[in-house]
Amino acid sequence: MSLRAKSHTDLQTAGRSSLDDRLSFSMSSSNFNRGSRFGNGTGEEVKGHSRSIRRPECEDLRKENKFLSNEIHMERIMMRTESELTMRNLRNLNQELQAQLKQKLYLSQQRVALCSRAADEAEGSRCEAEKMRNLAELLRKEHTGLQLSAALTEKSYFESQLKLDRVSGEKQVLLQENRSTQGERDELRHKLRNVTEENVQIKQREMDSRRRAVASEEEGKKANQAQREAEAERRLAEKERQERASECLRWREKHQEINERFRAEENLKALRQNKSCQANIKSYFLCMTESNQRVKILRNQDGAPRNFTEGDPVFIPTPECSPEEPERSSSRTLLRVSAPLTGRDHGPGHFDELPAFGGAERPDSAPHPRRSRKVVDYFWIPTDQE
Questions:
Q1: For the whole prediction, is pTM greater than 0.85?
Q2: Angle, nearest 10°, between helix axes 2-49 and 56-180?
Q3: Average pLDDT, the chain
Q4: What separation in angstroms does the CA of 342 have from each of 282, 306, 348, 361?
């Protein structure tokens, strides 16, 4: 970078010097031209004044001036060409220097990497050497220990040999004693077998007792569970009994209230009947007929005829469809009600004498309904009429 900056400054100074030279040359040439022009002007003026006078020195100077201007122009062209060549050479030199600098930098980086790798390898080899030295020290210590252990084993071998001789003698004695105790061993083995069988029986009894204990424990758990379930059922039954008792009390209160209402109605009805007897108010039976076929006296649920007095409300039940004719709907049933006449007239005695519903003509004079339609007539008959 310093080389590049230096070359650039050199180029700038060279350019400035060439520019100064050019300016100086141009100024001198312009001055010269101006001088020549002025000289020519003066010459022309002198020539105007005196055409006959012409100096040969002026002609020589003019020629020399022209020659010098040509020389200066050629010199300027030469200098420009040289400066361009110099700039090109300097530029090429700068590029070469930069390439060399980059190459040297790359080589230096490679050398640094190689040096660092060599340093790492040296460090690794040093660590390996340290490990090998430690391993050699360890092996030396182990070799010393092995030598000591070999000496100890040799000593123990002789001692064990002596012990073996002593033990072999003792073994002979023990074999003799073993032959003498063979019978005792057989007897003890027989006793051991008996004791083993007894132990097996005892263990079997213990296992049976454990099974019984586990079974009794499970039965106790089941009994406790059943007791808890019975307690829960008893509580549930007690709760249901309380709920039923409360519901029974509520129904009993409702029943008493309904009985009181019925009793009040019966009292009111009896009072009205007494009043009707006293005031000669008539009572009637509620009757019905279907399609002018048969007269039927309507009855209560207890089988008594349904009767009422004047002024009482009358509830007319809707006839139920018979199971033999399920296809007949309520839209095909015509209901008609004929009320008794008030006053001294006791009303009609038969359903043929009843007026039609709504004050129309008699049923037999009315147009005959369709066969699929059922006509139900409701009317009432005085109870004193036979």
A1: no
A2: 170
A3: 74
A4: 10, 20, 12, 20
